[in-house]
Amino acid sequence: MTASSYPEEAPGTDPNTVPNTVPQEISAAVPGYGDLVESSPDALLVVAEDGTIKMVNTAAERMFGYARGELVGSDHRMLLAEGFRNGLERLFFNLRRGAHTDGDAAAAETDTDTAPVEAYGVRRDGTEFQAEVAGSIFFTGTGPRDGTGNGSASMIAAVRDTSHRPENDDSLREAMSLLSATLESTADGILVVSSEGEIAGVNNQFLTMWGIPREMLATGDDEAVMAFVLDQLRDPAQFVEKVEALYADPAAESHDILEFRDGRTFERYSRPQKVAEQVVGRVWSFRDVTAAKVAQDRITRAMADLAAQSAQLKALAFRDGLTGLSNRQLFNDRLASALADRHGGAVDVLLLDLDDFKEVNDILGHHAGDQMLIEVGRRLRACVRPSDIVARLGGDEFVVLLLDSLEPEAVAARIVDSLRVPVWIDGTMLRPSLSLGLASIGESAVDASELLRRADVAMYAAKAAGKNRYMRFKPEMMKALVDRNDLEAGLRHAVDNGQIAVHYQPIVSAGSGTVTKVEALARWVRDGALVPPKHFIPAAERSGLIVEIGTEVLLRGCTELKPWLDEDSSRSLAVNVSGVQLQHGDFAELVLAVTESCGVDPRQLVLEVTESVFFEDDCHVIQQLMTLRAAGARVALDDFGTGFSSLGRLQGLPVDTLKIDQSFVSMINSGTEQLPILNAMIGMAHGLGLTVTAEGVETAAQAGYLMKLHCDSLQGFLFSGPQPEATLQPALDRAALAIAALRGDRVPGNR
Ligand code: C2E
Ligand code: MG
Ligand code: MG
To answer: 308: buried, middle or exposed (CB in 10 Å: 19+, 13-18, 0-12)?
Structure first.
């Protein structure tokens, strides 16, 4: 291709020529310009707005080593080395902007932005060379020459190989290339802004991170770029404020966080760009920390959750789960610190325990028991100041700690009184009561455990004094505690040494007028004095000694009464059995082994149990009684009518006889009064197929009244008190005489 092949010709008219689209304006305005262009020592390229090469001269072909046909239509960037590829674009833009500004491209060229740029060119063979590129802009088509009409702008780029220049510095080039490679390989988005506030450079990462189209940046419309950026931020004002603050202080550095509306988070660093200590611009770098922030937020949230959970756990650790009151640990802590920080102020401990709570639990069930405890907790709280501590120590035991109280006794009285109002639980009215022990810090120092022990001793004293009351600790009360321990130790000794004796009380049959049964009752003579069973039986049950005592009574009874039992198979021996015995091991097997070893028919045995053994729906207990009944033994329900007796519950229980408690019998005075409760009890028991024995019959009037109600058997001092085996015979005779007289028998039917 020669120079003559294109200048004057209309572009693209000759299909054999490369369409070297030289604007007609130029060819028209400059005669012989083709020669001019071709003879230029500089490579000349006409580049369109989209970067496409429209025309080249021979020098360009030579300089880059491409044929004209390869160059025209290609993107000019292929002729520029990496790191310099945007140089022409920028130059083009600046030239064009100059034209916009004053409509005079020549004027724009005086601007530093339009000055020739240093770049590295790339030859076809890949070799690079240093060059200087000067450009000028011209417009083609119709309309104003600023390019606002239908015309389009093109740039003539004059490329001069400057490799020969002595100042050419390979190391500078290398540094540039390194810098460029570094900038492009970093994960941070980098933006360099000149001191005048114009964008001087960005790396690709910056454009990607902000989603800024390269074309937008190429327009040089920094305001549009800024609007694009601000539109993505949650707080654009903060962004602008920071930018303005930094322009007011060019040497300042800064670091802040940008929150995006789409949830991303960037870190923004800014530092001045300096050339020889002179600030020439500012470098902004942006780092996408969204993932790190999300992870951090998650950790922060998890930590907060953990903290909340641990606070909750801590609170729970000091709370009683049922009543919401403080628990034992919190109470102990508070008491310890109250004693440690005491400055002469009063410290009072009120220890209390519900009376007979076990029965509520046993009879009405655990749910009702729980409701009762909750209600009691509520009432206790209402009796004290908010600053006082009310704690549940466990079971039905509560404790109150009063600090600097002037009236601990009044509080104690209020607490006892608080249960006077009945408690309604699941439609049942209950009248609970409590026993309270009060102990206070006195002149002499007392530690926490001693104070609690004193309150405990006082509480036991209140129970022993009849329950439903409070008592203040007195040193004498310690004696009661010592006595209790002493009682248990003595009983242990008595059991081990065979000192538990058995007395027998006759039970007469109203129908036959004879003694048909004898009840065995345990006796303990200690230091010459009889210890009442109501003292030592509870101690024996507490310590478990009742198992040995019960077995001993049964064995002795069977042994000592065998001759009497053998005389008449309708006679029987009754023994008292505690719930503790029934729950302990295979009670039925033990009983049957004893009767067998003594040669006593189990059908001549009656086991007296109290209703409480049935309260817990203990299958084991029921099973034991059923086994014994199956072997012929009978079961009597002792002390019926006390506690929470209910006739309705009798049905279905493995019971043969009802023993009406002496408290009912004692209601009979003259024998002429109306006592429908006794009528009902006896009538109901008979209706259920049970026989009835009345306990504690002391007068003839009582016996007469009960016989009229068809009570089957009678037991009491009227006939005989309990007797040792040695004097049993006369007692049996007296009892037989007494019942015969009551029946009006002429001849006593028993010996
Ligand atoms: P319990 O089984 O109801 O025995 C009857 C109690 O009433 C006996 O008291 C007896 O002495 C007393 N008593 C009999 N007739 C009269 C009377 O006319 N008037 C009055 N006021 N009382 C009368 P004791 O012997 O003091 O026994 C008390 C309780 O101790 C017994 O009541 C029984 O529950 C228990 N107990 C006695 N021995 C044993 C035993 O070996 N094992 C068990 N588990 N408990 C026993
Ligand atoms: Mg009894
Ligand atoms: Mg009884």
So the answer is: exposed
Nearest-CA residue for ligand 1 atom 2 is: 576
CATH number at residue 687: 3.20.20.450
Mean pLDDT, range 80-96, rounded to an integer: 79
User: Are 335 and 278 contained in the same domain?
Assistant: no
Q: Which comes out higher in pLDDT, residue 509 or 140?
A: 509
Q: Are residues 97 and 203 in the same domain?
A: no
Q: Is the CB of 578 under 6 A from ligand 1?
A: yes
Radius of gyration of the chain (CA): 56
Q: Is residue 699, in this structure, part of any structural domain at all? A: yes
Question: Are 101 and 171 part of one and the same domain?
Answer: yes
Q: Going by C-beta distance under 8 Å and a sequence separation of 6 or more, which residues neighbour residue 448?
A: 332, 335, 336, 339
Residue 49 belongs to what domain range?
Answer: 3-185
Residue 553: CB within 6 Å of ligand 1? yes
Average confidence (pLDDT) over 495-506: 95
How confident is the model over 213-236, as a mean pLDDT? 86
Residue with tokens 């995006």: 260
Task: Count CB neighbours of 256 within 10 A.
Answer: 12
Taking CA atoms, 136 is separated from 90, 104, 139, 421, in Å, by 12, 11, 10, 107
Q: In the chain, how long is the greatest CA-to-CA distance? A: 173
DSSP for 98-147 reads HHHHHS-HHHHHTSGGGS-EEEEEE-TTS-EEEEEEEEEEEEESSS-TTT
- Nearest-CA residue for ligand 1 atom 30 is 533
| pLDDT more than 90, % of the chain | 51
State the pTM of this model. Answer: 0.52
Query: 566-597 pLDDT, tens per residue?
Result: 999 999 999 999 999 998 889 999 999 999 99
156 in a domain, yes or no? yes
Are residue 27 and residue 89 in the same domain, yes or no? yes
SS3 345: coil
* Angle formed at CA 246 by CA 243 and CA 251, multiple of 5 degrees: 150
What is the DSSP code (8-state) at residue 260?
Answer: B
The three-class DSSP label of residue 319 is: strand
* Atom 19 of ligand 1, residue of closest alpha carbon: 696
For the CA atoms of 507, 509, 512, 516, what is the dihedral angle to 10 degrees?
Answer: -40
Q: What is the pLDDT of residues 402-414, one digit of tens each?
A: 999 999 999 999 9
DSSP states of 417-452:
HTTSS-EEETTEEE---EEEEEEE--SS---HHHHH
Decide: helix, strand or coil at residue 694.
strand
d(CA 137, CA 224): 24
CA distance 130 to 133: 10
Whether residues 52 and 150 fall in one domain: yes
CB of 554 closer than 6 angstroms to any ligand 1 atom: no
